[in-house]
């Protein structure tokens, strides 16, 4: 029995040592990959000629594969930018697969939302517990339904922060209405008026509608309303206040 315990202890020690060496090797590889990603030698030309605007390049969790944030979202490349990889990366070592790509995408959304927070039209809950960012279009029926029930969200401690996403693109009535809303002296009142079919006075300013629309496309927005939770998760469609609160509590 004593020999068995000693043998088991030795195996544990060897396992810890091996794991430490493996971890050290992984850290070295990651550092080298990070250096390559940040280097001027990293070839961005192939992605750029495909129309991608590159925002950042980081080593992914897979050796030789890079995680690239672009104006069109997250993509993966290998072979020094010469190979574009479709799909998502999952860690399957645990009891359930973990979507590592979704984690990266959520982090991207959180950073980008923080950068435009001051541009949003915000309806703040008195007892604020959560802030949900909503891409909206005044011509969208479900967006109007959300807005008509805004008090339900606010009473539950959910602040609603609107960004613009005209469904018809950068043209048409919704686009013009959103520009007028953001340029109005009272954007909150103008948003309510636009969603009630009231005529808005034309206004011109350095509005952020184009920027918001591009951001929504980058996030994967395909329709309105589209909700971005504090976690960075994107929820397409209308979610009522009670169900949304449950989702927020679950994290």
Automatic annotation (TrEMBL):
The family this protein is said to belong to: Belongs to the thioredoxin family. DsbC subfamily.
Signal peptide: 1-22
Annotated ranges, domain Disulphide bond isomerase DsbC/G N-terminal: 33-101
GO MF, one example: isomerase activity
Keyword hit for S-adenosyl-L-methionine: no
Function: Required for disulfide bond formation in some periplasmic proteins. Acts by transferring its disulfide bond to other proteins and is reduced in the process.
Limits of the Thioredoxin-like fold domain: 125-248
Phosphoprotein keyword on record: no
InterPro entries in the record: DiS-bond_Isoase_DsbC/G, DiS-bond_isomerase_DsbC/G_N, DiS-bond_isomerase_DsbC/G_N_sf, Thiol:disulfide_interchange, Thioredoxin-like_fold, Thioredoxin-like_sf, Thioredoxin_CS
Source species of the chain: Pseudidiomarina insulisalsae
Protein's UniProt name: Thiol:disulfide interchange protein
PANTHER family noted in UniProt: THIOL:DISULFIDE INTERCHANGE PROTEIN DSBC, THIOL:DISULFIDE INTERCHANGE PROTEIN DSBC-RELATED
Predominant location category: periplasm
Any one GO CC term of the record: periplasmic space
Pfam families xrefs: DsbC_N, Thioredoxin_2
Keywords of the record: Disulfide bond, Isomerase, Periplasm, Redox-active center, Signal
Localization in the cell: Periplasm
């Amino acid at each position: 029995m004593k020999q068995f315990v000693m043998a088991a202890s030795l195996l544990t020690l060897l396992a810890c040592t091996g794991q430490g060496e493996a971890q050290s090797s992984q850290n070295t590889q990651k550092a080298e990959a990070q250096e390559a990603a940040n280097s001027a030698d990293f070839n961005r030309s192939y992605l750029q000629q495909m129309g991608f605007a590159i925002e950042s390049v980081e080593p992914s969790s897979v050796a030789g594969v890079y995680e690239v944030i672009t104006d069109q979202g997250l993509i993966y490349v290998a072979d020094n930018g010469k190979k574009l990889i479709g799909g998502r990366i999952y860690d399957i070592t645990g009891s359930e697969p973990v979507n590592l790509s979704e984690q990266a995408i959520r982090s991207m959304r959180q950073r980008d939302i923080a950068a435009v927070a001051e541009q949003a039209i915000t309806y703040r809950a008195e007892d604020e517990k959560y802030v949900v960012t909503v891409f909206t279009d005044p011509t969208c029926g479900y967006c109007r339904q959300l807005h008509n029930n805004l008090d339900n969200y606010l009473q539950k401690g959910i602040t609603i922060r609107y960004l613009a996403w005209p469904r018809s693109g950068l043209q048409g009535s919704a686009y013009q209405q959103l520009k007028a809303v953001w340029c109005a002296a009272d954007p909150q009142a103008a948003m309510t008026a636009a969603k009630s079919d009231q005529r808005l006075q034309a206004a011109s300013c350095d509005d952020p509608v184009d920027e918001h629309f591009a951001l929504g496309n980058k996030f994967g927005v395909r329709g309105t309303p589209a909700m971005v939770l504090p976690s960075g998760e994107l929820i397409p469609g209308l979610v009522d206040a009670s169900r949304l609160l449950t989702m927020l509590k679950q994290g």
